[in-house]
């Protein structure tokens, strides 16, 4: 089991470097298809884009993505610089090399940052950050140019020779013995984008096309199985198969047919034989694509097929033969197997046992809401669906919820993304159960919904009910807002408001705001350094003479409980060229502070009010400005922290 999980994680890491950049690969493929001498519209000048794109742009994007996975934007920059040395030192596209140097660059700069954390003197942060990235990136570029590049060059040549041998000895169809079962184990993206895509791009550069792009992306084997269920299946499987077939073949989301195989494991034979038959047809007719077909839709395949009748015939024949073989074998399996109709829950359980993780398939069956105690449905403006890649099953779930929300007349925005791309300001995040912990780490302040299946409307109906019922009942004149104001007063108490302060620079001001939070017991001692670091990443000045310094995402674990400090600076202090008169130091935990922040945002949205607050003579006078506001002002997204 541990070996299996390790392989899956390694495969996911490889595909995560390529998958976000598939658009660039497709752009290169289309430019190649259109403008090369044998293309649709040959153009000698524009054809000059082909070689630099595949040699420089694509490896640099992979290197940047690999570094970013390890250590954010800073890791991505160092990873890209390190990759550049390998690109210049070799003559072939360095995709495999980028998958090595990108993460290595991110790892090195991450370790360096950890080593110096809390040891840099104030005022020298930008100098050290910039030069450390430049020096380490440069050293890694030299290392990749002199040492790693030549080794990866030899490895690439060996892999290319192995592929050539498989093709010329007509044993490439045997690859389906591994590819088709591995797809059901969720290694599909790892195989396609982590292994076949880099090798395929090199073949395109040499031969103008590559059949490797079709080995995993071919929708034929899956469609044949689904069509057999349409005609000879039973119960829920038969009723759901037509919709699944459309999504699989035209939408390119292959995960949707995996549970159908697991209901009848003998269908693995249908998938393998269908895939092998398609590959044999592809080799025989000399088909291939110009770029990855991602997602594996028939539309994507036709879009990146080289512009000639022979190529279209070969690629379409590949798909049709796969459909025919897998359909024929599936019919035999379904008609000769047991008559009981297994349901999708049983199939999902099988998948969990086989993979050690729940299905990412699009037949998500049961759900469970994982609520946070401070969930505020009245403040929800956006719901985010997140999955591993952010392109397949999460997009389907988002489409379903978006339609339901529109029907109810709600104004909530619904989007989908990869978990690695979740932002700190995410309010509601929907993921599959096995991914929820990762999502919580990326968006700890969000309300998380864990589901088994993205297409089950049950949890969405519960969420919509919460959103619809979020309108607060009218209160009597004696109790209106009393509890809310009392709670907010605990977050921003009079003793945490300091009048008539003056500071030489913003560092002094931020340190003072952090000191108040620390001495009040809201945060640990290191939180102030995190506030300074956060302001270096992006200014915490929000306009109208107001700044809201707060910690980084990593520093949230240093927050003991939510609290706010307020500092009045009548003469102002410079924040990146802006004069700040009011400073709110923020420590937010579990969304407890959001209501008070919304009050602050509304009060500070008016310049005249800020000027009055800058001249206030008492803490009580300042607090009065916040007691009659209760709605979030969307102009201040920083307050979603």
UniProtKB/TrEMBL annotation:
It comes from the Bacteria. Signal peptide: none annotated. The keyword Protease does not apply. One of its GO terms (biological process) is phosphoenolpyruvate-dependent sugar phosphotransferase system. Its EC number is 2.7.1.197. InterPro entries: PTrfase/Anion_transptr, PTS_EIIA_type-2_dom, PTS_EIIB-like_sf, PTS_EIIB_2, PTS_EIIB_2/3, PTS_EIIB_mannitol, PTS_EIIC, PTS_EIIC_2. The keyword tRNA processing does not apply. It holds the Pfam family PTS_EIIC. CDD domains: PTS_IIA_fru, PTS_IIB_mannitol. It is a multi-pass membrane protein. It catalyses: D-mannitol(out) + N(pros)-phospho-L-histidyl-[protein] = D-mannitol 1-phosphate(in) + L-histidyl-[protein]. Keywords: Cell inner membrane, Cell membrane, Kinase, Membrane, Phosphoprotein, Phosphotransferase system, Sugar transport, Transferase, Transmembrane, Transmembrane helix, Transport. GO terms for cellular component: plasma membrane. Residues 381-475 form the PTS EIIB type-2 domain. Residues 10-335 form the PTS EIIC type-2 domain. Gene3D superfamilies: 3.40.50.2300, Mannitol-specific EII, Chain A. It is found in: Cell inner membrane. The phosphoenolpyruvate-dependent sugar phosphotransferase system (sugar PTS), a major carbohydrate active transport system, catalyzes the phosphorylation of incoming sugar substrates concomitantly with their translocation across the cell membrane. The enzyme II CmtAB PTS system is involved in D-mannitol transport. Homodimer. This is Mannitol-specific phosphotransferase enzyme IIA component. It comes from Heyndrickxia coagulans (Weizmannia coagulans). The lineage of its organism: Bacteria, Bacillati, Bacillota, Bacilli, Bacillales.
